[in-house]
Amino acid sequence: MLCERCQQEPATVFLNQTIDGKKKEIHLCNKCAMEVKDLYQEKDISIENFLSSLLDMNHKKVAPHMEQQKKSHVLQCKQCGMTYNEFRQKGKFGCHRCYSTFGNLLSPVIKRVHGSNLHTGKIPNRTGEKLLTQKQIRDLESKLKQAVKKEEYEAAAGYRDAIRALKKEGGLC
Amino acid sequence: MLKWYEKNANNNDVVISSRVRLARNLETYHFPSKLTKEIASRIVHEVEDIVLKASSSHYFERMDMEALSPLDKVAMVERHVVSPNFVQSSIPTGLILSEDESLSIMINEEDHLRIQSISNGFNLEEALQNANHIDDLLEEKITYAYDERMGYLTACPTNVGTGLRASYMIHVPALETTGKLQFILEAIGKFGLTVRGIYGEGSQGRGSVFQISNQVTLGHSEEEIIENLTSVTNQIVEQERSLRKKLLSEKRMQFEDAVYRSYGALTYARILSSNEAMTLLSDMKLGYELGILNFEHTEPINIYGLMTCIQPANLQKEMKRELKIEERDMARATFIRQNLPKIKT
């Protein structure tokens, strides 16, 4: 029996195909079988591949113009040197700074994977307190700026004192 | 001291064990994939020092990963003490282990720290509590990579947030043989959960043992994640139990026949591959739990413990030498014959 595909070599591989519920057997030679196998074999679906395809989809939305796309492709983490392309390939970050470096591109992808992009779980005991204080200080500082802008100096002085107190309390000054 | 899997639990006819893993990173260093060997080694020492100096230090043991043989390492993977990824690492790694192997801290896996806690039976709350305890202990001395919006920052964004992977190891022979497992697997994704084989990603559910775990780590608290996983697993447990009862009432003779045949093969076989042994032990576990097989032992029989002992690397450790595949299958049959509980006649 000759190979059904090339009609030259003898058929040595029998392949079962199911198309639209109908089973069909095809007879192929070794060489054709290898080529067909490559065609039909699904790519390995790893979490890295999955992430990078999500990133690509999102990337075109965030940066629709070629110029912008090129720009984000050269984006590089200042701390560990991780580039956007490297992240796309590995699906893993190089350091915690990468989260802010690639944050804009990543945020919608994370939301798609987890259904959310806001942590509501555990807060570390020791550093958590510090984080909370820092956040309060940041909030007060922006209020202080607003007050100065509006020339509400009395309120501004209040904010300034509150910031000082928090910094002292948290050992931040 | 008995290892966690050598102890018997009450409620473990379907749920064999509960496991929690927390992924954590140190703020000061790059994630493991970007570490030099020197820095990686420094992190190992730093974390080891902190854990061993902490209050319950006598409880933990530091394993010298470089001194362990490849066989020892694979045996630990088989016992779920460490991940397959961990033993293949190209940078220095560290492992801190509790005596009963229920608690472990992997240093320099994909993340700097992987805190793992295993409990016997249906007991994820306890596992989480124990993992949290170690996490708090470490956090007193280590500043974690943490962001108020994103939570614990991990190397892979699929773990960010809680860094929590919770899982139940389940034995579901009735669901598997009746083909119902397939439906469950398809439905489970909608709940942000996933099912894998006994040895994790890509492994088959040998001996009808599977792991069900959460996929989503961000946007829900640790307790919510566990609650969701537990309620779905509860459904699976109920379905498995009712199917077992149904099989027993409708096809008692066929069922008994299958269980006794498997027990017979385990008793008399001279060559057993690990796949075949797992299937036979799975039948025996089912027969025991349904009261078909009654053993001479008055104490509960731990068949999962036996399943662990007959895995290739653990078997060789048991025999205290390396064995070729054919030798292994013979040694496995002998080991099972010697350790199989006797049935009452």
Provide a quick synopsis of the model.
The complex is a heterodimer of chains A (173) and B (345). By secondary structure, chain A is mainly α.
Give structural notes.
The complex is a heterodimer of chains A (173) and B (345). In chain A, β1 and β2 (22-28) form a beta hairpin. Chain A is mainly α and 173 residues long. In chain A, strands 1-2 form a two-stranded antiparallel ribbon. Chain A has helices at 30-40, 47-62, 66-73, 84-90, 98-101, 103-114, 125-149, 153-169; strands spanning 13-19, 22-28. Helix content of chain A is 58%, strand content 8%. Chain A is built from eight helices and two strands, in the order ββαααααααα. Chain B is α+β, with helices and mostly antiparallel strands. Chain B contains twelve helices and ten strands. An eight-stranded antiparallel β-sheet of chain B has the order 2-3-4-5-1-8-10-9, with helices on one face. In chain B, β6 (146-147) and β7 (151-152) form a beta hairpin. In chain B, α7 (222-250) packs across α8 and α9 runs antiparallel to α10. In chain B, 47% of the residues are buried. The model of chain B has no long low-confidence stretch (mean pLDDT 90). The interface between A and B is large, with 35 and 42 residues. Chain B: A motif (RDXXRA motif of the pArg binding pocket involved in allosteric regulation) lies at residues 328-333. Chain B: Keywords: Allosteric enzyme, ATP-binding, Kinase, Nucleotide-binding, Transferase.
Notable features of this structure?
heterodimer, A: 173 residues, mainly alpha, two-stranded antiparallel sheet, 8 helices, 2 strands, B: 345 residues, alpha+beta, 8-stranded antiparallel sheet, 12 helices, 10 strands, 44% helix, Protein-arginine kinase (chain B), ATP-guanido_PTrfase_AS (chain B), EC 2.7.14.1 (chain B), allosteric enzyme (chain B)
